[in-house]
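In this supplementary section we document a worked example of the pipeline. Step one takes a protein sequence of length 103 as its only input; no multiple sequence alignment statistics are reported here. Step two produces a three-dimensional model, which step three serialises into C-alpha cells for compact storage. The input and output of this example are shown verbatim.
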Amino acid sequence: MLDVDPTALGLEFGGSAVVGGLLGFATKQIAKLLAIIVGVELMAFRYLESQEIVIVDWNRLSAGLLETGDRAQEGVHWLVSTLSMLSVGAGFASGFLIGYHRG
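The serialised model returned by step three reads:
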C-alpha cells in the first residue's frame, strides 16, 4: 500500500508554489531590466555609428545572439527532470507562472 501523508504533500506543494511565485516575479523584473539595458545599448551604438565615431559589425553581433539562443535550448532537459517530481514540480511551476504573470 502506498503511504501518502497529505500534510507533507500540501506543505511541499504550497512551499514550492511560494518559491516559484517569487522566482517568477523576480525573473520577469530582471528580464524587463535587461531588455531596457539592451535597448539603450543598441540605441547608443546606432547613434555612435551615425556620428561615425564607431563602426559596428551588425552581422557579427546578431550571430553571437543566435548562438546564445541555441545554447539556451540545451538546458531544457534539466527543466524536464526538475518538473518530474509532481508535488514539488507542479507547485513550483504554477507559482512561477503566477509570479511571472503578475510581475
